[in-house]
Amino acid sequence: MNTLANSVRIIPATAVPEGAGVIVHRTIGTAALRNYDPFLLLDHISSDNPNDYIAGFPSHPHRGFITFTYMLDGYMQHQDSMGNTGNLEPGSAQWMKAASGVIHSEMPKQENGLLRGFQLWINLPAINKMDHPEYQEFPATAFPVIETADYRLKVLIGRFGDTVAPIQDDLTQVTYFDVQLQPGQHFQHQLPAQNTSFVYVFEGNGQFNGQAVALHSLVAMATDDNIFDFVAGEQGARFIVVSGKPLHEPIVQYGPFVMSTREQIDEALQDYQSNQFVRDKAWIKRK
């Protein structure tokens, strides 16, 4: 782990088996960056070998947070215990506020072998952890794209200038962009002051404020580092830029349950074991 200006950390991804053995590149949620308030986990799936991912993520519960899944290549079949089904196609995304409880599965569908995508876990404020679950799911065409001579930017959550994404997160004010930068070109951006922010490079490489950033690396910025300049390497670079308002609240996590106290974790376990886990039904809202 490298340090820049005593406040920026560059964290290489760690290969981790997840679900039924799917290999993911994990940065947030590792020993190097356990929690990054309000973000709990960042997994990057990237493989052209179906043996790495075809077993998928069989039925499992979530409580107390939001998952945001963004597909780059390949397909992900979604199903939950409430009867919701969906097929995330290339370029599509799903925002799932698990809140009081969702039991679901995410199973890859092979398409020419290649599967790439991200899943980000976003913590919920203590007062909202037992809210009614909600979904927002949109195809690739629903997300606005900004194109300049230097870069192509897709707005997935929040807003970039006057361009607004179909997904808004009012609780943590998350913004999430996919940026494709031409070789040798600059992408300069100012993030909201006092937010927790990061950049994750998943194609090519470059420099972040003069510091080299390799493929599959996350740049974690301190809350006072809200202005940055990313310069793409000789092959160009593609990265996500994510920012959110920290909650500054206790985090008690046990696997797929993220609550504020140990007693709430015990309650979640008891609910799951007694088939009382899903308290409120939600249906997928699609554009």
Question: What does the model show?
Answer:
The chain is mainly beta and 287 residues long. It has one helix and 26 strands. It has one helix at 262-273, and strands spanning 2-4, 8-12, 14-18, 22-26, 39-47, 57-62, 65-73, 75-80, 85-88, 93-97, 102-109, 115-123, 134-138, 145-147, 151-157, 159-160, 163-164, 175-181, 186-190, 196-208, 211-213, 217-221, 227-244, 252-254, 257-259, 284-286. It is globular, with a radius of gyration of 18 Å. The termini are far apart.
User: How many H/I helices?
Assistant: 1
Unreliably modeled segments: 1-6
Give the fraction of residues assigned to helices.
under 10%
Shape: globular
Q: What does the main sheet amount to?
A: 10 strands, antiparallel
- Per DSSP E runs of 2 or more residues, the count of β-strands stands at 26
Order of helices and strands: EEEEEEEEEEEEEEEEEEEEEEEEEHE
Average pLDDT over all residues: 89
In oligomeric terms, what are we looking at? single chain
Evaluate the radius of gyration.
18 Å
Percent of residues in beta strands?
A: over 45%
SS-derived structural category = mainly beta
Question: Helix and strand layout, with pairings?
Answer:
Blueprint: E1 2-4, E2 8-12, E3 14-18, E4 22-26, E5 39-47, E6 57-62, E7 65-73, E8 75-80, E9 85-88, E10 93-97, E11 102-109, E12 115-123, E13 134-138, E14 145-147, E15 151-157, E16 159-160, E17 163-164, E18 175-181, E19 186-190, E20 196-208, E21 211-213, E22 217-221, E23 227-244, E24 252-254, E25 257-259, H1 262-273, E26 284-286
Parallel strand pairs: 13-26
Antiparallel strand pairs: 1-2, 2-22, 3-4, 4-5, 5-12, 6-11, 7-10, 7-12, 8-9, 8-11, 10-13, 14-15, 15-18, 16-17, 18-23, 19-23, 20-21, 20-22, 20-23, 24-25
